Amino acid sequence: MDVSPAWWFAVVGVILGMLAIDLLVFHRDAHEVSTREAAAWTLVWIALGLGFGAVVAWRFGLEPGTQYLTGYVIEKSLAVDNIFVFAVIFSAFSIPARYQHRVLFWGVIGALVLRALFIAAGIALIEQFHWMIFLLGALLVVTAWRLLTRRGHHPDPSENRAIRWMRRRVRMTDRLDGQRFLTVVDGKRVATPLLAALVAVEVADVVFAVDSIPAVLAVTSDPFLVFSSNAFAILGLRSMYFLLANMLERLELLSVGLAVVLAFVGFKMMLSDVYEIPIVLSLGVIVVVLAISVLASLHRSARRRTTAPPRS
């Protein structure tokens, strides 16, 4: 797809403009994000992402528009798994709800930069070594299996290698100092738990990027579509977290749906030289699988509450 530099500048401009509005206008002061506020922002980000997809379809054609939408849906659904990990991170570092938005805001900026680098590297590898599509496809299938087998199990983020390395080389305090990532204790500059949580969030996103970017590359290898679908899906991650954080236990079967989606796109990638699954069919399969997993999760949760014995 032939995309002029103006389109790249436009996408980056919209992203930076929305981030500035989000931080400087609506979240200048630390506060606990309400469900109503999170829902409103979630709708804004989804409308922005879908609206951009409509612009892509209008300007470049239905096929690129569908590819963008498929990548957006994949990335948006996989982002839900990030939410589980973010909840574990904030609990492990005892980050109050009113400071969580600041950590996620800078985490999203870091994620955008890292994913841009990963996307460029992934596309370059596929163009240089065609056999990489089989390796990336197999990686998605293995990831799907791991997602099924580790359901409900997340490692302690405070014990990952990056945090251990940081503790050995950076002075840290266990006390928060408002929204500051760094503070001064006994005349020395030290890191607060907010910085440790931010590092853990960035490490978690690197891990998820290894899974999600190949999934989008199975749909399209166009750098503009891959980056824009990733970017617009990630932008709404913070509001999704505050909206769904209290509903995570009710979506227990969503990981099964995500595993099926990853396995599907993995096999799609590996079989692309033999048979190219139509992009519209791929989008339909992904949407149906995710819808079934969400509805089944809500049904199971409602049934469990109905049959649960009354509390004494």
Summarize the structure.
The model has no long low-confidence stretch (mean pLDDT 81). This protein starts with a helix and ends in a 5-residue tail after the last helix. A two-stranded antiparallel sheet has the order 1-2.
The H-and-E topology, N to C, reads as HHHHHHEEHHHHH
Class by SSE composition: mainly alpha
User: What's the shape?
Assistant: globular
Average pLDDT over all residues: 81
Description:
- By secondary structure, this protein is mostly helical.
- It has one domain (5-151, 211-305).
- The protein contains 11 helices and 2 strands.
Characteristics:
mainly alpha; two-stranded antiparallel ribbon
Layout of SSEs?
Blueprint (H helix, E strand, L loop, with lengths): L4 H22 L8 H26 L1 H31 L4 H32 L3 H18 L11 H9 L12 E4 L2 E4 L1 H25 L5 H13 L1 H8 L9 H17 L8 H29 L5
Antiparallel strand pairs: 1-2
Helix pairs in contact: 1-8, 2-3, 2-8, 2-9, 3-7, 3-8, 3-9, 3-11, 4-7, 4-8, 5-10, 7-10, 10-11
